Amino acid sequence: MVDATLVPTHKRHFTGDGSDFRGQKRSNDTHASITDPDCRLYKKAPGDASRLAYLGHVLMDNRHGLIAGEQVTTADGTAEVDAALQLMDELGGSQRITLGADKGYDRHGFVQDLRNRNVTPHVARKCKGSAVDGRTTRHVGYSISIRVRKRIESIFGWMKTVGGMRKTRFRGLERVGLHFTLVSTAYNLVRMARLGVA
C-alpha cells in the first residue's frame, strides 16, 4: 500500500486576503484553489514545497503484482490510513490476509484496526515506538512482504509515465478518480499479458 501525489496541470490560483503572498504562510485554511476546489495544498516531506494535489492509493496483490484496489482522495494528513482501511474493507473475504506497507503506516491505531479486520500488518517498523511487535516480525512471511512491497513503486512509475498521471489534466475528485481507475485497469491488462494470463 503506497500513495502517489497527483498534481494537476492547471494553474494554481488561490483565493486569500491579498494578491501578494510573499512572506505569508499558505495553508488549506487560508487559501483555496479557484479552479479546482477539491485540490488541497500538500507536501510529501518536511522541507518540500506545498503544491495542489490529490492522493492516489493502490492495493497490490503480492503474488502477481496486479492492482487489487485503487482510490483517489483529497490530500490530508490521514488520507493514507483511511484509504488503506477502506480498500481492505472493499476487498472482502473471511480468510486471514497480510498487508505490507511502509513506515508511514506504523501507527498503533492503524495496526489495531487491521488486526480487528483479520489482517496481519506487515508494516515496516519505525526505529522507536513501533506498533508492530514480535508476533508479526518473527515469521518469514514478514521479511518477504517487506521486500516484495517495493514492487508497488513500479506500478506508480508506469502510471505516471505511460498512464499520464504525473500531472493530471482533470479537475475535481470524481474526474481524477475516474482517470486513475482507467489507468489502473490499463496497467492490469498490460501486466496480465506479460504474465500470460490474458
List the SSEs and their pairings.
Blueprint: E1 2-8, E2 14-15, E3 32-33, E4 40-42, E5 51-60, E6 67-74, H1 79-91, E7 97-101, H2 108-116, E8 119-123, H3 134-137, H4 140-148, H5 152-161, E9 167-168, H6 173-195
Parallel strand pairs: 1-9, 7-8
Antiparallel strand pairs: 1-5, 2-3, 4-5, 5-6
Word description of this protein:
Strands 1, 4, 5, 6 and 9 form a five-stranded mixed β-sheet that branches. Strands 2-3 form a two-stranded antiparallel sheet. The protein is an alpha/beta fold. It has one domain: Nucleotidyltransferase, domain 5, CATH 3.30.420. The model has no long low-confidence stretch (mean pLDDT 83). It has six helices and nine strands, in the order ββββββαβαβαααβα. β7, α2 and β8 form a beta-alpha-beta unit.
Summed up, what is this model?
With 198 residues, this protein is an alpha/beta fold. Helices cover 34% and strands 22% of the residues.
Key traits:
Nucleotidyltransferase, domain 5, alpha/beta, 9 strands, globular, two-stranded antiparallel sheet, 6 helices
Q: What can be said about the biggest beta sheet?
A: 5 strands, mixed
**Helical proportion?**
25-40%
Q: Give the CA-CA distance, first to last residue.
A: 25 Å
Oligomer: single chain
CATH architecture: 2-Layer Sandwich
Shape label: globular
Query: What's the overall average pLDDT, rounded?
Result: 83
Percent of sequence in beta strands: 15-25%
- How many structural units, i.e. domains? 1
State the CATH class: Alpha Beta
